[in-house]
Amino acid sequence: MSDSRYDPNEKSLFEAPPLAEQERMVEAILFASPEPVSVREMQDRMPHGSDAAEALAYLQRRYEGRGVHLVKVGNAWAFRTAPDLGFLMQKETVELRKLSRAAIETLAIIAYHQPVTRAEIEEIRGVAVSRGTIDQLLEMEWIRLGRRRMTPGRPVTFIVTEGFLDHFGLESARDLPGIKELRSAGLLDNRPMPGAEDDEGDMVGQSELFEEE
Amino acid sequence: MSDSRYDPNEKSLFEAPPLAEQERMVEAILFASPEPVSVREMQDRMPHGSDAAEALAYLQRRYEGRGVHLVKVGNAWAFRTAPDLGFLMQKETVELRKLSRAAIETLAIIAYHQPVTRAEIEEIRGVAVSRGTIDQLLEMEWIRLGRRRMTPGRPVTFIVTEGFLDHFGLESARDLPGIKELRSAGLLDNRPMPGAEDDEGDMVGQSELFEEE
Amino acid sequence: MAEETSLFESTSVSERLAAEALIVDVDGFEGPLDLLLTLSRTQKVDLRRISVLALAEQYLAFVDRAKALRIELAADYLVMAAWLAFLKSRLLLPPEPGEEGPSAEDMAAHLAFQLERLSAMREAAAQLMARDRLGRDFFGRGFEESVERVRKVRYTASLLELIQAYARIRTRDEFRPYAFDRRDVFTMEDALDRMRGMIGFAGDWTELTSYLPEGWGLEPKRRRSATAATFAASLELAKQGHIEIRQSETFAPIAIRARTTPRATHE
């Protein structure tokens, strides 16, 4: 295989390179980038006719059990060192920003209930969410604005980002720890206070996210 | 191998981890480091009794022919994408930009008055035409050189190309509408000032103003 | 409480205290729901089987104690206290016939749900923060290979833009904004240049108007400009001692001639 190097100049226009070559290409692209790269972008950079997704499947198998792993982050892919080798990396460790208890809880509520409005976060925590908390999470690029809720006042909603998934090693918000149990226990439902006007309309929460994809 | 993860806390003090584990460690260290890492430094970071050089030799063999190679940089080692895949490290973005006002005016004059010399363009526009503007239009292959004018100095003339006609969906430059038509089509909102009407008479365009090609 | 401990681990004590001081005023509770959750733990039962009545009593007792200690309670706590007092009375008394609104049981169930949900979120947050994390437990590529961005700029224009550009040029005079039109302006510099060339031949008195440049004598606007410039230039030349000027009476034609005598003998 090592001799059958792919020369882009020799390619016939519509013939895709062999899969083994595509695998090498995906490997090189992902190695070169510190950020996750979307399948779409890989595909755009690879020669015509390539199938990045298929090449990725092979590559992922190849790196199983190695010192670096191929991981999926949302719709993108990245190489990451195996978590069990973290102890070797003191040198690379970046000081993680300390989050307040309020920020951590707010982040978790957004992740588990997304898309979620500020009013809903406050309802769950039983206390006002300070502007600074949301700002901090936005600034860290762990949350971003989602679609506005189609209820009176059209409040903005918050959702978590790909950066959040990357940081916590999650493939998607569906992989959040315990989310299935929480949902089946009804703890991710919006249950308005009995007798209170349901001014948020139908607060669909995570179910919305799941239907979408 | 993938199950025999190395746990630094369980190691007996003087027993080196298995070579396969050492290979994983070297792989992770080299992957995560922003700079090439020397064998000495790897050794320092790995558990006691490890042999970084040997692990490195195995790792290098493993990456032979892959999309990334293990390369020696001075006294240190680093992963680099395979040289034959350099073409993947280009990300082409096509940016559409509007022609500058000077360029489009010059182009318009050439289209309406071709073949036309630079001096004539300047006379019509009332300002000097920069070399760069003409060069840009030549480079875009929207204009090309016509015959030299048979006047003192034998100046070059410019005419529009097939590519120009193609881009603007014209069969010939003669299809370009005149000022009167523009006005009646509402493309010019200003009304002519009294006495300025003869402007249009001026606009004889290609054939009358200059000799035919 | 294990999950609480791990939650707190990620914040330094001083930061935590500072953050809490901003939000609450009593014992570091983050609002009434947080206080209720903490109180509920003393019942040592599953949150689903919690006695809301007992909890309400605990809460009200807490608030009373705080008042006795003259601790200023935030409005949130007092609102909750009022609501719980109401709930408590509803739970204890039989419903009045024909009473509207939700039943006391529904309200109590909702409170229990809120506590359970908050507790679940706390636990989820702790689990989340305990995960392997990028930059701490696992790492991305350290070396960033330069991905060359080949920026291809393609210029474009539409036919309409082309036509409008041409129209703009051809009709510029019609609608251009006011600009000082130099075509009909004869400057003093122009006049000076012109007169310097001619003055040597003017031995006799000559009317100033005869110095007007060709083509400037007919159209009134141009004539005015040229006359003014020529007159100003003649004054300048007189001042420099090159010519003499005379005017026989007011509004009479002005005449000039070259000076033959040095300026020193000024008469």
Automatic annotation (TrEMBL), chains A, B:
Keyword Transmembrane carried by entry: no
GO biological process: cell division; chromosome separation
Segments passing through the bilayer: none
Gene3D superfamilies: Winged helix-like DNA-binding domain superfamily/Winged helix DNA-binding domain
Chain segments carrying region Disordered: 188-213
Keywords: Cell cycle, Cell division, Chromosome partition, Cytoplasm
NCBIfam families in UniProt: SMC-Scp complex subunit ScpB
Full protein name: Condensin subunit ScpB
Organism: Rhodobacter aestuarii
UniProtKB/TrEMBL annotation, chain C:
InterPro entries, sorted: ScpA
Gene3D superfamilies recorded: 6.10.250.2410
Protein name: Segregation and condensation protein A
Source organism of this protein record: Rhodobacter aestuarii
